[in-house]
Amino acid sequence: MQAQAKACGYKLLSRELETKADKKQVSKMRRKHEDFHDGAKDGLTPLEPLELNKIEDFDQLLKAMGQTAFGGRSLGEAADVLEAMLLDPDCTVVGTFSGAMSVAKMGLLICDMIDRGWLQAIVTTGALVAHGFIETLGRVHYKYPENVPDRVLFQQGYNRIYDTLEMEANLDYAEDVFRSVLEKLDQDQVWSSAGLCRELGKYLSEHSGAPGILRNAYLKGVPVFIPAFTDSELGLDLAGYMVRGALAAGQEFRAALGALSLQFNPFLDLGAYAQQALTAKKLGIFTIGGGVPRNWAQQVAPYLELLSTRLQIELPEVRFHYGVRICPEPAHWGGLSGCTFKEGVSWGKFVSPEEGGRFAEVLCDATIAWPLLLKGVSQRLEKGQTK
């Protein structure tokens, strides 16, 4: 009985001590009005209501959105970073584009960036280039009629890309044009995606007056890299060209599938891009979407660092100082498309904000945010030129 009473006393004492400790902790956590801060005195940035009756152009709209919140503020801040990137005379800007942006009729935005001198290199997908190539050739994309089943679309020769249609006849026509370009190439030369894009751009400049990604890039001397070249209509067209040649030479079909009559080496792209990055005083990146184009463009920094450390070669440090990304992909899926610039700092791809890096990320459909951003920043820069 005495032992039980003693144990009970210990429990009561323990509870009393715990209660006193809890009260003491609560007392520490409880806020006091005399300790409250004032945002203005702390130097915080005040937000401002968006007054549309005071907005006269896209530049003013973006500036006003930058003083609001959520996605609007992100887009406004992206305009500030893009402006700084474009006004920095030492900055070489790389544009990376993925997704069906040419089918979505956003291709002329890339052309505008090229013509304004905003891009010094482009890294993109073969699909985006192929659909843009078709558009520059004068062919048309159509709105998808939702009442038509996909199996019927297949039978009718329509290829669906979400809410848009690419006709199989367009792809066939583009293959005919591409084959005519391939037939005139030096078959002994080793080619890369940038080399083939340059030749296609040259063809378009000679046969079409319409603006287009490859045409405008060729005329402005901007290289276009397609890292995953075989993952596209262009890649299939090149493969088909080689199989066609092998069959004409008498090879069996299975053997013809492995025939390489035209030499293609993707490491030529990597080498050319690395050389361009090494000569740049600063690097900036403008990204639509993510995927292979984004990672391939960004990995030049760790690639050159690996060469420096593993081969014991003195090389200048290469990292991106600026970055603007428009992509609906959130970070928590773990994919590269949603990877933040902050995470990229840990890989040595970007200059940290503490060291002067400036970055902006807009989680939005590019067909919504991209036109607004480009129009606003172009107006802002034009105002600066007239002052």
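^ that was protein a. below is b, sequence first then the tokens
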Amino acid sequence: MPTQKAEAEWQGNLAEGSGRLKVGSGAFDGPYSFKSRCEEGQPANNPEELIGTAHAGCFTMALTAARRTVCSSRSAIAPLSLSVDTGEP
């Protein structure tokens, strides 16, 4: 598995400051703040949202691999797509 890189920077105090999150591949580069972590409706991202997204991506790949292994002799029932929603029920 290749080594991945990410960067985070923060400026200012906790309550009023803000920062930037960036992944090494360039696929994501965006702002975050204390307010985006703790208040609804803020336009910036938060680290937990990105962690949830990463887990959902890994889960769908693992589930697809497990499903293919179990159903290898019956490929007609293997899933064509999976969707994972990490939101509240």
